[in-house]
Design brief:
Blueprint (H helix, E strand, L loop, with lengths): L1 E4 L10 E4 L4 E4 L5 E2 L1 H14 L29 E4 L6 E4 L3 E5 L6 E4 L11 E2 L6 H12 L17 E32 L2 E25 L6 H7 L8 E2 L9 E3 L5 H21 L7 E30 L2 E8 L5 E2 L6 H11 L2 E5 L4 E4 L3
Parallel strand pairs: 1-5, 9-14, 10-13
Antiparallel strand pairs: 1-8, 2-3, 3-4, 5-6, 6-17, 7-8, 7-13, 9-12, 10-11, 10-14, 14-15, 15-16, 17-18
The protein binds zinc ion (ZN) (2 copies).
């Protein structure tokens, strides 16, 4: 059985959550605040040491469950753990790394999902709070007359989720070699005639370039359009990962590994490399890349968790989805998502559930 870590206040024993405004662990009971780094050392090391390096195997189905004609097992692939606050046995989706206990609402971090081989190298902590995310969304719609009135009212947001999304961040040193075709055109008039002359040039650029933290998401379910629309993240402001940053938020671990994500990183490297070098070909009216070669000479990858606020609202039976970069506050509205895929992903994030009576009844708690 997996272990769930609930960070306790040393003053009063209340549950601690990470506070985005103060950059500290804050007690919901007495209001005391603590340095997150303090908790990495104490309770965490112990919890992490007890975990296997690989994700735990799904628990075997209890005997007699599911009943013969019950259809697919709703608990298949789920991970079982014990809430350290109330002792309840709860189930979670195999990729959930943080959430809250469906019984006592304590914020929990699932140790096995963020330790050993699954331990992130870095995390960008939330800088914007839930209230700020809602306020930003209201602002986005203020003064836009054509939008339904519901968007301008204060309480239209149905669901707000702070999610840490797993990301691979690739560093490349690369040799870039590009050829361009450039043109300049001039026109002169002689009497009633007009003469147009086009000069065509060939330009070459070659050099070494460093690319840092090219992001590729590590979640199979998460629609790429969400993250790509709220980029960039300032990775230089990331901190060494500590699980206490996740307290009070939702978090997922990766299920696409760095090898599987690599082709997308190379694609982005080639696009970026081409753009950077092309911008140095100046003094022409047109510049077109004729050939391009980007050859990495050194590669490195880090695993990070990036903060996102997801906001949804329902209007006339239709859901509208918004995302905010939890570090920079950049917000984008209504995302052109594949709604089915999106809700499967959101459903997975909410997938911490409670098991009652030895697995006879299943209660799903939506966080
Ligand atoms: Zn306290
Ligand atoms: Zn609990």
């Amino acid at each position: 059985m997996s272990q769930a870590v609930d960070y306790k206040c040393p003053q009063c024993g209340g549950s601690l959550v990470y506070d985005a405004t103060r950059g500290a662990m804050v007690c919901g009971n007495c209001g005391s605040s603590f340095d997150p780094a303090q908790f990495q050392a104490a309770g965490w090391e112990r919890a992490a040491a007890a975990q296997p390096a690989a994700p735990p195997a799904p628990p075997p189905a209890p005997e007699g469950w599911p009943p013969a004609e019950a259809g697919p097992d709703p608990l298949a692939g789920m991970v079982e753990y014990t809430c350290s606050s109330c002792g309840a046995t709860v189930m979670t989706d195999p990729t959930s790394a943080a959430g809250s206990c469906p019984y006592c609402r304590s914020p929990i971090v699932v140790a096995a999902q963020v330790s050993g081989q699954l331990a992130p190298d870095l995390v960008i902590p939330f800088r914007f709070t839930r209230d700020q995310a809602v306020e930003a969304l209201n602002k986005l719609y203020r003064g836009k007359r054509l939008l339904p009135k519901v968007f301008a009212s204060q309480n239209f947001v149905d669901e707000v989720k702070g999610v840490y999304v797993p990301f691979w961040l690739y560093d490349f040193d690369a040799r870039v070699s590009e050829q361009y075709t450039a043109t300049n055109t001039s026109t002169r008039h002689a009497g009633s005639k007009r003469y147009t002359t086009t000069y065509t040039y060939s330009a070459v650029r070659e050099g070494l370039a460093n690319f840092r933290a090219i992001p590729v998401d590590g979640s199979a379910n998460m629609p790429d359009v969400i993250m790509e629309s709220i980029e960039p993240y300032e990775v230089s402001e990331a901190v060494a990962f500590g699980p206490s940053y996740l307290a009070g938020f939702l978090a997922e671990r990766y299920d696409v590994d760095s090898k599987q994500a690599y082709p997308r990183a190379r694609e982005r490297l080639e696009q970026t490399g081409g753009t950077v070098f092309k911008s140095t070909v100046t003094g022409y009216q047109t510049v077109r890349a004729a050939a391009s070669q980007v050859t990495p000479t050194r590669e490195e990858v880090r695993y990070g968790l990036l903060p996102v606020w997801m906001l949804t609202t329902i209007w006339r039976g239709e859901r509208f989805t918004f995302a905010m970069n939890g570090q920079t506050g950049r917000i984008v509205g209504d995302l052109p998502l594949d709604k089915g895929a999106y809700w499967r992903w959101m459903g997975g994030l909410a997938g911490i559930s409670a098991v009652i009576g030895g697995g006879v009844a299943l209660l799903v708690a939506i966080l």
